[in-house]
Amino acid sequence: MQLYDTGSLGLGFAASRRMDNTMSIGAGIFLLVVGAILAFAVDLQVAGIDLKTIGYILMLAGLVGVILGIVLITRLRQSVSTTRSAVDPASGEQITRQTTERDPLI
Questions:
Q1: Where are the alpha helices (DSSP H) in the chain?
Q2: pLDDT in tens, 36-55
Q3: What pLDDT, on a 0 to 100 scale, did the predictor assign at position 58?
Q4: Which residues make beta-bridge pairs with 86?
Q5: Is the confidence at residue 10, as pLDDT, over 90?
Q6: 77/86 Cα distance (integer angstroms)
Q7: Within the chain, how many helices (H) and strands (E) appear?
Q8: What local confidence, expressed as pLDDT, does residue 3 receive?
Q9: From CA 100, how far away is CA 44, in angstroms rounded?
Q10: Cβ-contact 83, 66 below 8 angstroms
Q11: Residue 25: which of 76, 55, 63, 78 has the closest Cα?
Q12: Cα dihedral 26→27→32→34 (10° resolution)
């Protein structure tokens, strides 16, 4: 029988959050590049659509994404996960308990 503390998440969650934030920065850079191409390099007229404006909007969204990604990476909390295992003398079953301690957000 295994008992887990389902209210807490371990170091794997922190690593996945770091990957999400890195992906946020990558997506922001991608939007910046696509927006710059549309705003400065494409000379195409589409009826009812201003590609320069769309390019500027994408560049702004990319900049916001990069800034948010950097802020979230710097605000990540550290966590320590502890697992304790013992054998129940009455039934002989192995019991496992996992706890996680996190630093508070500043």
A1: 11-36, 51-74
A2: 999 999 988 889 999 999 99
A3: 97
A4: 95
A5: no
A6: 30
A7: 2, 2
A8: 47
A9: 56
A10: no
A11: 63
A12: 120
